[in-house]
Design a protein that fits this description.
- With 453 residues, the protein is of the alpha/beta class.
- The chain folds into three domains: 3-118, Rossmann fold (3-Layer(aba) Sandwich), CATH 3.40.50; 137-308, P-loop containing nucleotide triphosphate hydrolases (Rossmann fold, 3-Layer(aba) Sandwich); 314-449, Helicase, Ruva Protein, domain 3, CATH 1.10.8.
- The protein has 20 helices and 18 strands.
- It has a five-stranded parallel β-sheet with strand order 2-1-3-6-7, with helices on both faces. A five-stranded parallel β-sheet has the order 9-12-15-8-16.
- The radius of gyration is 29 Å and the shape is elongated.
C-alpha cells in the first residue's frame, strides 16, 4: 500500500480517481488547491503526488518546488487536458516522473504509478549507499610493497572512465573494498553505484534482477521492473562472484558490454545503457573456461584490466597496522580500551590466515566483545585461531605413541581450552561459554567434571 496525494481542482476527478486508486490498495488523500496541497503534503507525507497542471487560477507546475521542499523524495505525475511539449519539457526539468493527458485509463495510470514507486525505491537504495560511502571512506590499511603496487594499479584504472575491471582474490581479501576504491576515484563517483552479489541471487532470478523484465514476461511478472544494470546507468555496477552466473546470463552480459544495450526479460526492445562494469571473483576463471563453466569471450571482455588482491599471508608486514586499526574500530564501537601486545602480533604473524582480513576482523571484534579493558597477549590469539594452528596442527604433526588413550587426550585438550577461556573471561562462565561456542549449562557441567569450579 502506497500513500498518494491527488491535487486537482475538479471534485469529480478527485472522487473517482481516489476511489479507483483505493481499489488498487493505495491510501489516498486529496486537495483542490495549493493551500490544501501544502498542508496535506506536510502532514500525510505522500510517496507519490498526482498533480493537475491546470488548478483554476493556479499552474500546477508552480507547486512542484514547494511540494518538494517538505517532501524531497516524492514522485510526481502530471495529469492535464492541456498537455503540450513545452509543458512536458518544463515538468521533466522540475523532476516530474511522467506526464499523462486526460481522459486517462485508470489501469494505465496504475502502471505508471508502479513504475514511479519502483524508481523511488531504487533511488532510495542508491542514496543510502551514498550516505554509507560518505560515512565509511574507502581506506586500505597497509604499507607493504604489494599493497602499494595494488593501490597504484587501482588508481590508474579508476581514472579511465569506461575500462572494465576484473578483481581477483581469495575470499576475505577485500575485493569489494577494491571495487569501491575504483568507483570512488573515478569520474563516475557522483553517479549511482550498484552492488550485486551474484552468488546470493537464486539461479532462476539472476537474469530478471540484472536485466529487468516487462509485464507478463513470466508467471508473477504483473508489472514492469527495471534491472540492476539499468539502475546503474551513467554510474558503476559491481558484479561480485561473477563466476557463479550461468552461461546463458553470461551471454546476455557480454552483449551489454559489447553493444552498451540491454533487453529486459520478455521484451524485444533494446535499451541503451551507459554503465561501467567492475567484476570480482575468487574462482580461477581460466580453469572454469576449460571446464565449460565460463565463456572465454566474456572473460576477455572483463579482463581488460585485471587486479590481483594479495592474501593476508603475502602481506604479513601489514598485520600490526591491521590489528591496531580493528582494535581502534571495535574498541570505540563497544566503549572499551583494548590494545595488542607485541607478543599478540607475533603470534598472529605465525598463522596462515585462510580467511584473510575478514577473519582477522572477526577475531578482533569477538575479542573486543568478550574482553575487559586490557592489553591482549599471545595466548588470547591462540584461543581464536583456526586452520594450521592449534588442534589441527597437533593432529597433523604427532605420532601415535604406545599406550595412547584417546579419551584421556581429548579430556586433556578440552580441560586446557576451558581453563584458558575462564582466564580470558575473568572467570565469567557466560563469557567463557561464548568463547568456546557452547551453552552455559554445558560449560558448567564440564567445569564440575574437571574440578575447575
Amino acid at each position: 500500500m502506497s500513500r498518494i496525494l491527488i491535487i486537482d481542482d475538479e471534485a469529480g476527478i478527485r472522487l473517482t480517481l481516489g476511489e479507483g486508486l483505493k481499489d488498487f490498495g493505495h491510501q489516498v488523500k486529496a486537495a483542490k488547491n495549493s493551500m490544501e496541497a501544502y498542508k496535506v503534503n506536510s502532514e500525510f507525507s505522500p510517496e507519490l503526488i498526482i498533480l493537475d497542471l491546470n488548478l483554476g487560477f493556479e499552474n500546477g507546475l508552480d507547486l512542484i518546488e514547494s511540494l518538494r521542499e517538505s517532501n524531497p523524495n516524492v514522485q510526481i505525475i502530471i495529469l492535464t487536458a492541456y498537455g503540450d511539449i513545452k509543458s512536458a519539457v518544463t515538468a521533466v526539468k522540475k523532476g516530474v516522473f511522467d506526464f499523462l493527458n486526460k481522459p486517462f485509463d485508470i489501469d494505465e495510470l496504475q502502471f505508471i504509478i508502479e513504475k514511479a514507486l519502483d524508481m523511488k525505491i531504487m533511488k532510495n537504495k542508491i542514496y543510502l549507499h551514498e550516505k554509507e560511502k560518505q560515512l565509511n571512506k574507502v581506506n586500505f590499511i597497509g604499507e607493504s610493497h604489494v599493497i602499494r603496487n595494488m593501490l597504484d594499479d587501482l588508481l590508474k584504472v579508476a581514472r579511465m572512465n569506461d575500462v572494465t575491471v576484473l578483481i581477483r582474490g581469495e575470499s576475505g581479501t577485500g575485493k569489494e573494498l577494491a571495487a569501491e576504491y575504483v568507483y570512488s576515484n573515478s569520474p563516475r563517483a557522483d553517479k549511482p553505484y550498484v552492488k550485486v552479489n551474484c552468488a546470493a541471487l537464486p539461479a532462476n532470478l539472476v537474469e530478471s534482477e540484472l536485466f529487468g523484465y516487462v509485464k507478463g514476461a513470466f508467471t508473477g511478472a504483473d508489472k514492469e521492473k527495471i534491472g540492476l544494470i539499468e539502475a546503474a546507468s551513467e554510474g558503476t555496477i559491481f558484479l561480485d562472484e561473477i563466476g557463479e552466473i550461468s552461461t546463458e546470463v553470461q551471454a546476455k552480459l557480454l552483449r551489454v558490454l559489447e553493444s552498451k544495450k540491454l533487453m529486459r526479460v520478455g521484451s524485444v526492445k533494446e535499451i541503451p545503457v551507459d554503465v561501467r562494469v567492475i567484476a570480482a571473483t575468487n574462482k580461477d576463471l581460466v580453469e572454469a573456461i576449460k571446464q565449460g563453466e565460463f565463456r572465454e569471450d566474456l572473460y576477455y571482455r572483463l579482463n581488460v584490466f585485471p587486479v590481483n588482491i594479495p592474501p593476508l599471508r603475502e602481506r604479513i608486514d601489514d598485520l600490526g597496522l591491521l590489528i591496531r586499526h580493528f582494535l581502534k574500530v571495535y574498541s570505540a564501537k563497544f566503549g572499551k580500551k583494548i590494545e595488542a601486545s607485541d607478543s599478540f602480533i607475533e603470534a598472529a604473524g605465525k598463522y596462515s590466515w585462510p580467511g584473510n582480513v575478514r577473519e582477522l576482523s572477526n577475531i578482533i571484534e569477538r575479542l573486543c566483545i568478550l574482553s575487559s579493558d586490557r592489553v591482549l597477549k599471545d595466548s588470547d590469539f591462540t584461543m581464536f585461531s583456526d586452520g594450521d594452528r592449534g588442534l589441527d596442527k597437533a593432529i597433523k604433526d604427532f605420532d601415535l605413541p604406545e599406550g595412547f588413550d584417546l579419551e584421556e587426550e581429548v579430556a586433556r585438550i578440552e580441560k586446557g581450552y576451558i581453563t584458558e577461556a575462564m582466564e580470558m573471561s575473568g572467570s565469567n562462565v557466560s563469557k567463557a561459554a561464548d568463547l568456546l561456542n557452547m551453552s552455559r549449562y554445558s560449560l558448567m557441567r564440564r567445569l564440575e567434571k574437571y574440578g575447575l569450579n
